[in-house]
DNA sequence: AAAAAAC
């Protein structure tokens, strides 16, 4: 539907948003069999001074139906003396009846997923400790922090008591949508603090004070409201950073995030801070555990992060010459879409806004319906394109890394990397390295909640081949090559092998 | 290079 020429672009886009992580589907459950507590080191039994215990939560999961992405062990390190028991049922969590009803009736959940089982007790048990939590894509992280926020709000009191900071507008909106559904029966109110349409822009000083209980938004708007004294943070009890590794990364939102965290911690007299993401590279991890020194931690080994039900492939899209063959990429994409349309929705990732536009134009002109989104679009168009895709009105969405993180759409079962994610710093240094974290997030747009999916990585050069090899090594996961031949069934077979079709 | 962002 979307006509590329029709979508206006703004010279300076200051919208933010992106979409979140777990949405509609049933959080399928993993069975928590045992939580054995092993004392760190060879500490003698009487050593009460030992502050840290390492709990190896060995978790066997039984994926009963189609859900259950998390196979691997997650390792939890607790701080302090509290012993947490994994929640087998939502009833184990002392939630209000309103929230229980929201989980079962509105969300349709049955039991906590693995990350929920492990993290929710840590979030909800006093004394309220900070938490850094890593879990697989599509494993239900959003539910963890949304439930955390809802549980800590007193609906009889007015004003902000919980806050969530996200990297993009789309993600903030998606998270708020989840919160509203889950909190449907609780009487808890929320607002989305993101840049609004330029037409209806109201300067901060003219806005009323925020009265809602929960504020979800992007760093700039949140900061603006805070400095404009329209967002009082004195009663904030819980502060969440979604996609926390990115929110705290150099070159990410580090400065904004630290500022916000510092101010709120001071104003509120110390509030609980939750950091959630599917990825934490070593640099961020070191920094993060410094930020939440006295907190609990949940981590997953990077080798265990790849989603089993999502099949990854690579396709050679260059011929003899060692330069990208855009034409060949288009042909391969067309092949993928031919069959992809039959199985569900497709997201195509590109590196730049310009490629998003160009690819959109090209595919459209060849009769392949698609839409595209990137940060230069005006907010109205961004919202419209997301809505159309979420409503299933469009099948193919071309995007920059705007949607790499958190975007949750169960029907997406094909992801195409038209360009591989490259670490910009290394690129500038002249020795390009892949951005493995972004790669993992892109892959995670499919296979939500244990569903099946396929990812096609288009290799435009020998360099791309080397990049993907580094990604394979990073995750210790070999990615098979699929023939690009236009005359055989390699692509179809790959889609079939992934369990689609 | 992507994203957020202002009055």
How does this structure look, described?
With 501 residues, this protein is of the alpha/beta class. The protein has 2 domains: 267 residues, Rossmann fold (3-Layer(aba) Sandwich), CATH 3.40.50; 188 residues, 3-Layer(aba) Sandwich (Rossmann fold), CATH 3.40.50.300. 33% of the residues lie in helices and 16% in strands. The strands form 2 sheets. Strands 1-2-3-10-4-9-8-5-7-6 form a 10-stranded mixed beta sheet, with helices on both faces. Strands 13-14-12-15-16-11-17 form a 7-stranded parallel beta sheet, sandwiched between helices. Helix 11 links the parallel strand 13 and strand 14. It binds one DNA strand of 7 nucleotides through helix 5 and helix 12. It comes from Dioscorea cayennensis subsp. rotundata.
- CATH level 3 topology of the largest domain: Rossmann fold
Domain count: 2
Taking the alpha carbons of the first and last residues, their distance comes to: 25 Å
Strand content: 15-25%
What is the percent of helical residues? 25-40%
Overall geometry comes to: globular
Task: Tell me the number of strands.
Answer: 17
Flag low-confidence runs.
1-6, 8-71
CATH C-level class of the largest domain: Alpha Beta
Name the strands of the widest sheet in spatial order: 1-2-3-10-4-9-8-5-7-6
SS content category: alpha/beta
User: At the fourth CATH level, what is the homologous superfamily of the largest domain?
Assistant: P-loop containing nucleotide triphosphate hydrolases
Average pLDDT score:
85
Major sheet details: 10 strands, mixed
Q: Architecture of the largest domain, according to CATH?
A: 3-Layer(aba) Sandwich
């Amino acid at each position: 539907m979307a006509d590329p020429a029709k979508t206006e672009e703004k010279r300076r886009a200051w919208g933010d948003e992106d979409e979140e992580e777990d949405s509609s589907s049933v959080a399928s459950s993993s069975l928590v069999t045992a939580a054995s507590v092993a004392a760190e080191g060879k500490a003698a039994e009487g050593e009460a001074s030992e502050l840290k215990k390492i709990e190896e939560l060995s978790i066997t999961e039984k994926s009963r139906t189609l859900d259950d992405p998390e196979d691997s062990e997650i390792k939890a390190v607790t701080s302090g003396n509290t012993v947490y028991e994994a929640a087998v049922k939502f009833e184990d969590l002392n939630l209000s009846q309103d929230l229980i009803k929201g989980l079962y009736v509105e969300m349709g959940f049955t039991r906590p997923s693995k990350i929920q089982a492990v993290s929710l007790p840590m979030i909800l048990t006093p004394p309220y400790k900070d938490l850094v939590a890593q879990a697989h894509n599509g494993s239900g992280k959003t539910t963890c922090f949304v439930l955390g926020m809802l549980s800590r709000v007193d609906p009889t009191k007015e004003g902000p008591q919980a806050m969530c900071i996200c990297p993009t507008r789309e993600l903030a909106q998606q998270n708020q949508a989840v919160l509203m559904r889950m909190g449907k029966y609780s009487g808890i109110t929320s607002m989305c603090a993101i840049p609004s349409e330029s037409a209806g822009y109201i300067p901060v000083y003219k806005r009323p004070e925020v009265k809602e209980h929960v504020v979800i938004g992007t760093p700039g708007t949140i900061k603006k409201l805070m400095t404009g004294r329209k967002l009082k943070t004195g009663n904030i009890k819980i502060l969440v950073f979604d996609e926390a590794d990115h929110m705290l990364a150099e070159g990410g939102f580090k400065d904004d995030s630290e500022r916000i965290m510092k101010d709120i911690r001071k104003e509120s007299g110390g509030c609980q801070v939750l950091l959630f993401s599917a990825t934490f590279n070593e640099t961020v991890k070191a920094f993060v555990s410094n930020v939440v020194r006295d907190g609990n931690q949940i981590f997953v080994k990077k080798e265990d992060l790849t989603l089993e039900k999502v099949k990854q492939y690579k396709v050679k899209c260059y011929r003899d010459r060692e330069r990208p063959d855009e034409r060949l990429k288009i042909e391969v994409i067309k092949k993928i879409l031919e069959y992809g349309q039959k199985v569900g929705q497709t997201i195509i990732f590109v590196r730049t806004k310009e490629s998003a536009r160009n690819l959109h134009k090209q595919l459209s002109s060849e009769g392949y319906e698609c839409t595209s989104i990137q940060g230069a679009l005006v907010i109205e168009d961004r919202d419209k394109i997301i809505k159309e895709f979420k409503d299933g009105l469009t099948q193919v969405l071309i995007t920059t890394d705007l949607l790499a993180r958190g975007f949750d759409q169960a029907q997406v079962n094909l992801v195409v990397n038209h360009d591989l994610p490259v670490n910009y710093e290394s690129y500038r240094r002249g020795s390009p390295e892949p951005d493995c974290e972004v790669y993992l997030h892109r892959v995670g747009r499919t296979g939500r909640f244990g569903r099946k999916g396929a990812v096609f990585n288009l290799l435009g050069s020998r360099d791309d081949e080397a990049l993907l090899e580094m990604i394979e090594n990073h995750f210790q996961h070999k990615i098979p090559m699929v023939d690009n031949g236009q005359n055989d069934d390699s692509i179809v077979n790959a889609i079939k092998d992934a369990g689609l079709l």
